[in-house]
Specification:
The protein is an all-alpha fold. About 80% of the residues lie in helices and about 0% in strands. The longest helix is centred in the first third of the chain and has 38 residues.
Length: about 450
Amino acid sequence: MTSLKARYVGDRAFYRMALTVAVPIMAQNFITNFVSLLDNLMVGALGTEQMSATSISNQILLIFNLAIFGAMSGAGIFTAQYYGKGDNDGIRLTVRFKAVIGLSISALGLLVFSVFGGRLISLFLHESDAGGDLELTLTLARQYMNVMLFGLLPFALTQILASTVRETGDTFSPMLAGLGAVGVNCLFNYLLIFGKLFFPAMGVRGAAVATVMSRFFELSAMVLYSAVKRKRLPFFKGAFTSLRIPKAQFAGFSKKTLPLLFNEVLWSGGMSALSVAFSLNGLTVVAAYSISSTISQLFNVFTFSMGVGIGIISARLLGSGKHEEAVDTVRKLIAFSLSIGVAFSVLLFFFGGQITRLYNTDPESKTLAVYFIRVFALTLPLATMASAQYFTLRSGGKTFITFLFDSGTLWCVTVPLAFILFYAFRLEIHVLFPIVQCAELVKVVVGCIMLKSRVWVRTIV
């Protein structure tokens, strides 16, 4: 027992260090997801079609958001390790690389969503006995997406600054900027969706306008912070006077970043494909999945935030050459993350369904959403473990292996399984959904093997 405790349990200073990194990320993600819940409730008050329209559009736009996240994360591995090494010039090069790739993704995203947005939305709309106005849903989704396109560039620029600040040890300041942004989003959602005070009632377009406003607010906050704290952030000085990066460094950054970029694009595309598979059962399932996903993400904040924290802490130790300390730290952090994940699983199972009562949608959607939430709760420990494994593998620069681990299992196991169960076996959603969610077990087993092999234990700067 003493040996197990020494391997998997840290002291107070250990957990204080871990929570110092993770709690600000956790707080920002909690507030963001809580506001997403409020957004969902406000739009849901307009009707099932309105909520389905925003849910479908956001599912498609998630591909862009995660592409940016993947690009920043790939370069961020170098940022965190350069910071552990004390190399400001190296960090400055990673910032330029983030700018180059972030602007490129933004341009491509605007082109694709402008030209093919309507066709992508139509993939989620299927006739069923449950009814629902598909034509109205398509029209509303296109209105929402057309406004949201104005927020793509400010989102990318914000992530360039915020991710770098987080990777160099300050997770608190990006959290404050994010909290301010979600406050703006929440306030103007209420004013613009329902037409309160002297504002017009814009419905789903109002929700999109509020989101875009919050994106510009967050960008302004991060630019102001970077200017005021320029002594603490010396690597930003001169970072944007030129976007020139030596070929050797550019090739090195690309080698680690592109697999993560493709991973996030394929992962978000895979999640969209799963939504399409579920939507084959009708618009009621789309609405129920939107409700359950939003509520479940509120409880899943700890899982994601601890994963990010594990990645940052591990990368710093690896950058400093402290390999054995990194292994020991990661082992204890994963054990801590998993124990809390189980606790949140219990909370989600018993209390998550109560939140569905706040929605003003049809009873069938709410009943199905409660069922989805309980399935999410039972599989939350698997998601917790998979998230911790993902960020650990990534911290050592093993981005191609991370790509195979994350998107490989999704596209080779989960997505085909969802479509096969529907088309080949004609399973209804109550049977199909839990089977698909349990496919995460394959990913966890693969992750355990990879972590035990120590392929991630390496310094890359």
